[in-house]
Amino acid sequence: MNKFKTVFIVLLAVIVISVLGYAAFAGADDEPGGSSDPLVTQSYVDQYMQWKIVDLKTGQILQGHAGTELITRRGQAVVVDATGNGIPDVTGGADIHAGSAAPLNHLLVVPRDDGRGVKAQSPAVVMYRGGATVR
Q: What pLDDT shows up at residue 29?
């Protein structure tokens, strides 16, 4: 009877360990970021994470959508803002209001989808990340 008890306890321990091991590793193939459960789609990365470059002609306006990041790389551009709230200059730590120069190589962030952006005063090169419209 003692031998039967020992075999039963060992068998029970093996079953418990097997069940716990399976439960711990059952979702390994579906981990976040894996091929079956990506954190983001490729189109999201292409649209929102990669910088795009636009050559603006004098008078053209680049309007950013909410969250768009802008960097004026060359030329002269001024901020366009019908709301009067300005565009945050993350590099300079201040808001830049309508008609003020968009400093070269400063990161500007468009907070809302309300027409804010930059207008080229001379041919300008602007990098942007996120959604934008050139008109």
A: 55
Tokens of 6: 């020992």
Are the CB atoms for 81 and 116 separated by under 8 Å? yes
Q: How many helices (H) and strands (E) does the chain have?
A: 2, 10
pLDDT tens-digit readout, 9-20: 888 888 888 887
Spatial separation of the C-alpha atoms in residues 117 and 82, rounded to whole Å: 10
Grouping H, G, I as helix, E, B as strand and the rest as coil, residue 14 is: helix
Report field, pTM of the whole predicted structure over 0.70: no
For the stretch 26-80, pLDDT in tens is: 655 566 666 676 677 777 777 667 899 999 999 999 999 999 999 999 999 999 9
Inter-residue contact 131 to 47 (CB < 8 Å)? yes
Rg of the chain over all Cα atoms, to the nearest angstrom: 28
Q: Which two tokens stand for residue 57?
A: 């002609």
- Compute the distance between CA of residue 6 and CA of residue 4 in angstroms, rounded to an integer: 5
CA distance to 3, 4, 29, 46, 126, per residue, from 10 (Å): 11, 10, 30, 55, 70
